[in-house]
Amino acid sequence: MLLPLALSASAVLLLGSASIHTLSLQGHLRLQAAERRSEAADWLRSAAQAFAAAASGEEACLLPWPMQAWDGGVVGCTAADPARLRSGVLAERRWTLRDWQPSGDTGLLYLQLDDGRRAAFRLSLNPEGPLVLGISEPQLQGRVNAEVAS
Amino acid sequence: MSLVEVLVSSVLLASSSSAALAVWSQAGVAVQRSSQLEERANQLERQRLATHRWLASLDDGLALLDPAADCAFAAGAVAAAADQALPLPDGAERRWVAAAEGAGLWLELEHGPARRRQLFSAAAYGLCQP
């Protein structure tokens, strides 16, 4: 009578411990995933800041035009080098411009990192001149696989 | 009920209780560490966001530019102004490091094992007139 009772109590104790252990492990994994998301978002925000830096000076005159128009040569913007806006390197990580669509005093910026992570940003533009006034928080768009990314 | 049964049951209960106690205690420490790390990560996220909003709302952002450079933040000026405007939580550290590519300043935030790093450029806040 006593032994079956002891066996049942032991089983309950060990099963309970296993559940608690699983819960704490899940919490740890959730935290790690949140850290990875924050890190990726920081890299993408940094890439958007680098784009804004590249789009000042000679290249600023390209801002009022969508990316597809840059190759044909933008009137009054002959000194600009569109390649400076199409990609760049930040602390050995490459970012690539996927698309740029300006519209009045805003512009939609689509960037991708070398690991395939992508995000969209809304840029505030000065309607009186080609100047970035602000960058929104990123809208993370997941990840394309490395082959497509390269 | 024999003596052997009592002995075996006692040993069984004692060992399973001891093992369960060890796992519970370990899980308790892990949960405490996780919640501390999560709280610190949240503090750094609030600090990062506050930095972005502070730069976006500066009245005299030009005072933070390096006069010797072509529209770039001066790390010293930004660090001093940020220390005044954005107090850090106890134990957290903040560094401003010039990016090797010249695109801006890296903001590095650290609070124990929690870390954040983001580039900030003057051009992203309307401070670089073409």
Account of the protein in words:
The complex is a heterodimer of chains A (150) and B (130). Helix content of chain A is 41%, strand content 27%. By secondary structure, chain A is an alpha+beta fold. Chain A has a single domain, classed as Nuclear Transport Factor 2, Chain: A. Chain A starts with a helix and ends with a helix. Chain B has one domain. Chain B is 50% helix and 15% strand. A 3-stranded antiparallel β-sheet of chain B has the order 1-2-3. Chain B is rod-shaped, with a radius of gyration of 26 Å. Chains A and B meet through helix 1, strand 1 and strand 5 of A and helix 1 and strand 3 of B.
Summarize the model shown.
The complex is a heterodimer of chains A (150) and B (130). With 150 residues, chain A is α+β, with helices and mostly antiparallel strands. Chain A has one domain (40-149): Nuclear Transport Factor 2, Chain: A.
